[in-house]
Amino acid sequence: MTWTKKRLTNLFFCIGVIAVVVMLLTFDVSFVELWENLVHAGYWLIPILGVWLFIYALNALAWQCIIKGNISQDEHVSFWRIYRLTIIGYALNYATPVGGLGGEPYRIMELSKDIGKQRATSSVIFYAMMHFYAHFWLWFTSIFLYLALVLIGDLTIDITVGIVLSCIGAFCLLAFYVLTKGYRNGVAVRLVRWAGKIPGMKGWSVRFMEAHGEALQRVDDQIAALHKQDKRAFYNALVLEYLSRIVQSSEILFMLLLFGVDCGGGFSGILLTCCHSILILSFTTLFANIIGFLPMQLGVQEGGFVLSIAALGLTAALGIFVSIICRFREIIWILIGMLMMKITKE
């Protein structure tokens, strides 16, 4: 590792540590209340934290599908290396504003050692787009899940809810169109040009395009080629990313069961509770991503949990508990990611 890359790694590490400190100092509850909530969670913390081993594994498999489509048969990047970079990347994304300002550059820097900078860049950008694509599919399909629960009498709908669901649907359809164009034509050049429209950024955008325009265009060409040449890998990655969201909802399911929320118990009750967990995750992540410029989305995620849980007829206290435990889980996995960055040798 060169001296510059060592300094960048140390910078990323410091960002993660600072973010954890900021998070601990800005909790909306006292440390006594935090401890009481952790004690209340008890042994349920094990599956809540442990399920992320499987979530990150699905994320890594999705990214591996993309990487395999972007390398020759003679090249190989091990799953465990991809898994490690996945965990570290998401730890940095949790820690930085506009999630991705830390994780994606780090992934590009590290993956460049294996497959070169341009292919690493195209693979990381392609995967980041896939990650967002799967989010939109979760939000879009959640509309129909909500309507299905309305049909069986489990949930209710009124004009306000109908308008909200319609707006979410229109938002997702627009995103599908934009992302599909991005897959077919690439997005690197467009992103730099869009950045130039931000006040004060025009000069930087022009200079960057003059210096790196050809390299960016090659990245875009590789993104378009990846989408065109290997449709199977594209859809495999999408399914894996979507499935990771469904698995992620299980941590909310564990917390609902902890509070005795099981919709009457039995198989049908647990199934309904699973559906509620998916809806809570879907609407919370939608709310958090709309206002995603805050580090770790401080306050936004908590508000999203409270609103989405209350919308399903559950108590605000349960929403606060879920948000606190999820925030604690984020801190633990940020620390794990930072430790992996410092102690894991390649």
Element layout with pairings:
Elements: H1 3-25, H2 31-41, H3 45-68, H4 79-95, H5 103-115, H6 117-151, H7 159-185, H8 188-195, H9 202-229, H10 231-258, H11 266-290, H12 300-311, H13 316-343
State the total count of DSSP E strands: 0
The largest sheet is:
none
End-to-end span in angstroms? 10 Å
Mean pLDDT across every amino acid position: 78
Which regions are unreliable across 5 or more consecutive residues at pLDDT < 50?
A: 293-298
How would you classify the helix and strand content by structural class? Answer: mainly alpha
Share in helix: over 70%
Tally the helices: 13
| Topology pattern, helix = H, strand = E | HHHHHHHHHHHHH
What is the radius of gyration computed over CA atoms, rounded to a whole number of angstroms? 21 Å
- How many domains, as an integer? 1
**Which range does the strand content fall in?**
under 5%
Shape: globular
Please explain how this structure is put together.
It is a single chain. It is built from 13 helices and no strands. The protein has 346 residues and is an all-alpha fold.
Question: What descriptive keywords fit this protein?
Answer:
single chain; 346 residues; mainly alpha
Question: TL;DR of this structure?
Answer:
The chain is mainly α and 346 residues long. The protein is built from 13 helices and no strands. The radius of gyration is 21 Å and the shape is globular.
